[in-house]
Amino acid sequence: MGSAMLTAEAKAGCPSASELVREAIVDADRTGVKAILYEGAVLGFFADLARDDPADFHAVLATLQPGERNELRKRLGVAFPGLSTGERGERGEKPRQSAISASPRAGEQGRILDEKTQLELLDAARTRFDGAALPEVSAYPVRALGVTMGEACAAIAERGQVDPAMVGQSLLAAAALLCQSRADVRTLAGVKPLSLFALTVAGSGEGKSTADGVATAPIERWQRERTREHAELVDTMLGAPRTKSDPAPSLPPDPYILMRDPTIEGIRRDFAKGRPSQGAFTSEAGAVTAGYGMSPEHKIKTAAGFNALWDTGEVSVSRSMTGRLQLYDRRLSIHWLVQPDAARAALHDAVLSNIGFWPRFLCAWPAPLPPRRAEPFHPDRDPRIRRYWQRCTELLQPQGDDCSGLPVIEFDDRANDLAGRFFERMEVEAKREGRTLVDVRPFALRATEQVFRVAGVLAVFDGRDVVDIEHAARAVEIVVYSLETWRSIFGDREKAQAGANALRLYAWLLKQRGAQASEVAMLKIGPKPLRSRDLRDTALTTLEQYDLAGRDGSDWIALR
Questions:
Q1: How far apart are CA 442 and CA 349, in angstroms?
Q2: Per-residue confidence (pLDDT) for residue 136, from 0 to 100
């Protein structure tokens, strides 16, 4: 379609003009798009379309590059693409503008958005950043989980409409909880627990509870039964007749193996009272990442406590009021599911990474789910999930009361050779300038031990007493996936910080009258961390790039 024809159709106000514009934009090459896009008649049509049919206007805008969208707004003289300015086809000196809500006209101050609208717009902006901030990571290696876990993962992801990465993390962490009380594994650094720490970052409504609930269902059932038996036993012991001289009965340890309090103090308390092998599983891990234990004055001690549990299973703490708590050979596996907002600050804390806290975690950050279907999920009806549950039940019988002197699962020669080559590769990629893993060095240097642990869990779950090359290769796939995720988070710290600053400025703009402010005002009363020209300008450029802010004369206005 030629430019002249498009112009004629637009001028005539043809009912199919919107389709004609879209067709031209979609079919033309970029040069052609730019040639027809900014003709006066077409601009007039766009202005009418923006005012009279915002949905169609947004549909057209969606086909353009961010730079082209910004140029179109500039040429239209509008700050916000949802509504038009002026009369039909008008492009005057000062066309009327529209912001997120009622934007100020000449001489007006505008109004402040209500809190609900602010939160909704900020949440939408965060989603936009989440989708763009993380480079694409390879698909989660479902097959690397093995036959039983892999089939269960596929079934839960498909039937429960949950991302496979989230399901895989849940299943692997549950398997580690079951296997860590049955064996240790020999690594290049000596014998280590089979415990795993897993972190999954996902927003609300992404299926966190579904994935973790199905993965831990047999453990929950086992725990419920043991709790009832334990209560009956305690009642019997306390109700038995005894004289005043008889010592109080020595009660059995608490039967729980699933902790719902993810804090280090809660974990220590549960180990002191309960079983030596437990798991901290929670879909609300913000209590850890943003809680008291991670405050500046406590985070190093908190991280050190978790590190010791991961390394050797030792609990050692001294308090002036309660005395010393010293426990050995405890086993802790973790799966923390946390929302992006709660994760960002903690994940980008250089101290936690440098002391080896986050490098001990296998990480997944799945992309947001597409809209889901209204279909009921009955995991008990799927034979693939039932087979996984059956294997979990077998590993629960019996649960030992001591993790000292556990059997050591060994790598065979081929598996050891593979792990050795992986170790040497990590050393090169992490330590030589310009190589792929330099930005995530602590994670790369910890990756080989993760391979040994994951391979050991896979082997024990499969009922093997030796790790062969198949288990080792599958473990490498899982660990590499985690490394890719960590790279996507930490590989470009400046970009991540720019995104965080941009969101901070956007949130502040939403609170101003008319959702707008001048550059001078930003420096004087804007967010304190951004009261410098360089940081402010970078934040504004980032917001403009993501179509979240636009210039309105001397002011900047928040867009949606």
A1: 13
A2: 58
| First and final C-alpha spacing in the chain | 32
Which run of H or E residues covers position 500?
A: helix 493-510
Dihedral, CA of residue 551, residue 557, residue 558 and residue 560, to nearest 10: -70
Other beta carbons less than 10 A from residue 120's beta carbon: 14
**Token digits for 109?**
């101050």
Q: What are phi and psi of 291, to 5 degrees?
A: -95, -170
- Picking from 523, 517, 504, the residue whose alpha carbon sits closest to that of residue 556 is 517
Q: Which CATH class is domain 112-133+492-560?
A: mainly alpha
Are 196 and 454 in contact, with CB atoms under 8 Å apart? Answer: yes
Please tell me the distance from the alpha carbon of residue 136 to that of residue 201, in angstroms, as a whole number: 15
* CA geometry: angle 362, 220, 304, nearest 5 deg: 40
193: nearest Cα among 407, 357, 362, 395: 407
Q: Cα–Cα distance between 125 and 279 in angstroms, integer?
A: 35
Task: Identify which of 216, 195, 206, 170 has the alpha carbon closest to the alpha carbon of residue 339.
Answer: 206
Q: Tell me if 112-133+492-560 shares its fold with 134-236+252-491.
A: no
* Residue-range domain boundaries for the chain: 1-98, 112-133+492-560, 134-236+252-491
What single string gives the DSSP state of each residue in 439-468? GGHHHHHHHHHHHHHHHHHHHHHTT-SEE-
Where do the H-state alpha helices sit in 250-338? Answer: 264-273, 286-289, 299-311
Q: Which two tokens stand for residue 496?
A: 């991540």
pTM over 0.70: no
Instruction: Give the pLDDT confidence score for residue 361 in this predicted structure.
Output: 97
| Sequence letter at residue 209 | S
Q: Give me 105's structure tokens.
A: 């006209």
- Other CB atoms within 10 A of residue 319 CB: 8
User: Which tokens go with 263?
Assistant: 């804090």
Q: What is the mean pLDDT of each run of 10 residues along the chain (560 residues)?
A: 39 42 43 41 56 61 60 55 35 38 43 84 77 64 96 96 96 98 96 97 86 95 92 86 80 86 83 91 75 74 92 83 84 91 77 88 90 91 98 88 91 95 94 86 95 98 96 95 88 66 90 89 89 86 87 84
Q: What is the pLDDT of residue 23?
A: 46
pLDDT in tens, 497-509: 677 888 889 999 9
If one looks up domain 134-236+252-491 in CATH, what number appears? 3.40.50
Q: Is 364 helix (H, G, I), strand (E, B) or coil?
A: strand
Give residue-wise pLDDT tens across range 262-273: 788 888 888 988
Give bridge partners of residue 332 from the DSSP assignment: 278
